[in-house]
Amino acid sequence: MSDPVSSCTARLQLQEQEIRTLSAEIESLKNPQSLSPSPHLEQLRDENTKLKYRLNILKRNLQAERSHCSKHMMNVNLLLQDVFGDAIRASCPELDDPPLVVTPNQQAKFGDYQCNSAMAMAQMLKAKGIKISPREIAEKIIQNLPENDLIQKTEIAGPGFINVHLKRTFVSKLLSNLLLNGVQPPPLASKKKVVVDFSSPNIAKEMHVGHLRSTIIGDSMCRMFEFLGYDVLRLNHVGDWGTQFGMLIAHLQDKFPDYLTSSPPISDLQAFYKESKKRFDEEEDFKKRAYQCVVRLQSKEPEFIKGWNLICDVSRKEFQRVYNCLDIQIIERGESFYQDMMTEVVKEFEGKGLSQLDEGRRIVFAPGQSVPLTIVKSDGGFTYDTSDLAALRQRLFDEKADIIIYVTDSGQATHFQLVFAAAQMIGWYDPQVTRVEHAGFGVVLGEDKKKFKTRSGDTVRLMDLLDEGLKRSMDKLKDKERDKVLTPEELLKAQRSVAFGCIKYADLSHNRINDYVFSFDKMLDDRGNTAAYLLYALTRIRSITRLANIDEAMLRKAAETTEVLLDHEKEWKLGKCILRFPEILQKVLDDLLLHTLCDFLYELATTFTEFYDSCYCVEKDRQTGEVIKVNMWRMLLCEATATIMAKGFEILGINPVHRM
Ligand code: ARG
What confidence score (pLDDT) does residue 630 get? Predict the structure, then answer.
């Protein structure tokens, strides 16, 4: 057992076992019935005291082990919850489930974290007829705080807030851990499966800015789950099975009669779609034939499947260009995949008596919902509702997903609400066990605050938008004369990184629930909360160590031997900021709002700047410019900041460059 982590864990388990035994012994000493009527009561009391003492020591060690032996990055907020949880239970045995609230403090002068439980506890006690002030409860909580190595001091403020100040040695130790192990996620109790349904454009139609949002947000969610060790299935639920295929295939047959033997050169599927739509609306015969085509496609006649495949392929190639730019991995599993399962789904609802007929349609009313789902249309066809019910069932029972997330615009909120309610009604899942969630988002607006359009009023094509981003990012780099400093390859890399990074970050840094204004000028600005600013910040931090001629090996050595000092106020602030990363991720995991991560990265970058402005990392000779002293612990702070920023970028899908 040479691995320190496994030997630590083994020791931890032994200790926990011993603690349980000791606690049981103490309990039995307390119980007078279990005492034999011997005259050795004094002796037993003595033993009891010793046992309690040992138990305390063991508990203290346990705490220490918890915070030092694992490789993953500790969630300081959780550690505090642990400590306060013990104290709260001990100070209020009257309450079965006392509230446990520990949150980071917004204003640093009041301490680093705050425990706000006392107020709610006083209320709960009052309801039980016990009168005690929140301040008194707060005092009790503090008295009952177990020995620990993370809290420097506590103080009571206002009506009963407990302000918590962290210990420097604790923060410093966690930073060393981070430097030695990298950013390691907390261990998962069991491997969980997540399905993320995102991007999901419609075949033969243009992928629009709404799909761009879904693509960016969904990809970032996947990256977060992947980092946290989940088994992630990224699904592209493309619209590939609608009635529109009837007219598309009918038009294909007319325009490219030999489509079965040679691939038709459809370069502009949009135009092709428009042509067929026009004919559908104007030519009665064509319309009839289009309907027949749908029926023949749905009964899977090979010729029709071939035509359908050809059209899907053209779309696929278009979508793939966007995914390549944005570095998106996704598996296509469109509506057509669920075709046969839809029949099953309808049977199941019918069989369980959970559907009804309504003017020829088959509908499903879920409890508490005022509108029904339509699962079979009056012409016998299935709908968007049917395919989503089938997809949900497949994901629950075949994929055995623990978490299923749908990333679409908020306009589809009702649709998903109905689908989820129907699925619960029929007993497919229990929301207490499986997390099924629609992560909706607002619309993209132009700078005029109206729906995002081109100057001529057309919808914006995504590839044009991405190309425009590339052009603007190159203009910006040239404005700053970076083309004179960087090699041509470096310049191209920087161009892509800035362009696509900025487009992604602009989306992710806004609360997804809200609409957001798309502005190249704003997103490419290198001041403020933008990817451009953060990308520059990271390259700058990385260049500090490079310019001081410190390589990775030296940093590693330093991480093992040099304590990260946090005496300067700005070092202290930066150190604590770095360590908030795990609690930020925890929050994003809970509410799927990625802007919290963006805000954090921005705060980290500005906190770093404050530190760098007031703390010398390298001291140079004023005359010669020669390095005379390297303050290694500060280099370590630079490195820890860069490590967290890089991990944050990875989760946001932003690609940092070495030089820009
Ligand atoms: N294709 C749909 C659209 O463009 C989005 C599909 C979202 N996913 C789903 N399972 N309904 O609006």
Answer: 94
Looking at the CA of residue 384, tell me the nearest atom of ligand 1. Answer: 11
Q: Which two tokens stand for residue 4?
A: 């320190």
Give 161's DSSP letter.
E
What is the domain-level CATH number for residue 531? Answer: 1.10.730.10
Q: What predicted TM-score, i.e. pTM, was given to this entire model? A: 0.88
**What span, in angstroms and rounded, lies between the C-alpha atoms of 44 and 49?**
9
Whichever domain contains 134, its CATH number is 3.30.1360.70
Residue 530 domain boundaries: 485-652
User: CB of 72 within 8 A of CB of 182?
Assistant: no
Of 70, 103, 121, the last residue of a domain is: 70
pLDDT, one tens digit per residue, over 240-250 is: 998 889 999 99
**What mean pLDDT, rounded, does the chain reach?**
91
552 and 515 in a common domain: yes
Clarify whether residues 33 and 142 are in a common domain: no
DSSP-derived 3-state class of residue 627 = strand
Q: Within this chain, do residues 29 and 116 fall inside the same structural domain, yes or no?
A: no
Per-residue tokens: 594: 């990625």
Q: Is 408 in the pocket of ligand 1 (CB under 6 A)?
A: yes
Six-digit token string for 73: 């990055």
Structure tokens at 8: 């630590």
Q: What is the pLDDT of residues 99-124, one digit of tens each?
A: 999 999 988 788 999 999 999 999 99
Same domain, yes or no: 27 and 91? no
Q: How far is CA 546 from CA 176, 447, 538, in A?
A: 20, 41, 13
Asked if residue 230 belongs to a domain, the reply is no
**Last residue within a domain, chosen from 148, 166, 184:** 166
State which amino acid sits at residue 141: I
Tokens at residue 443, please? Answer: 């619309």
Closest ligand 1 atom number to CA of residue 415: 11
Q: Is 406 in the pocket of ligand 1 (CB under 6 A)?
A: yes
Considering the domain architecture, whether residues 59 and 79 belong to the same structural domain is answered as no
Is 256 exposed, middle or buried (CB count within 10 Å of its CB: 0-12, 13-18, 19+)? Answer: middle
Summarised one tens digit per residue, pLDDT across range 593-618 is 999 999 999 999 999 999 999 999 99
Do 528 and 648 sit in the same domain of this protein? yes
Distance of CA 431 to the CA centre of its chain: 20
Please report which helix (H) or strand (E) contains residue 321, including its range: helix 302-326
Number of structural domains, the chain?
Answer: 3
Residues of the chain with pLDDT under 70: 1-69
Three-state secondary structure string covering 278-306: HHHHHCHHHHHHHHHHHHHHHCCCHHHHH
In residues, how long is the chain? 660
Identify whether residues 62 and 113 lie together within a single domain.
no
Tell which one of 195, 408, 438 to mutate to probe ligand 1, the residue whose CB is within 8 A of the most ligand atoms. Answer: 408
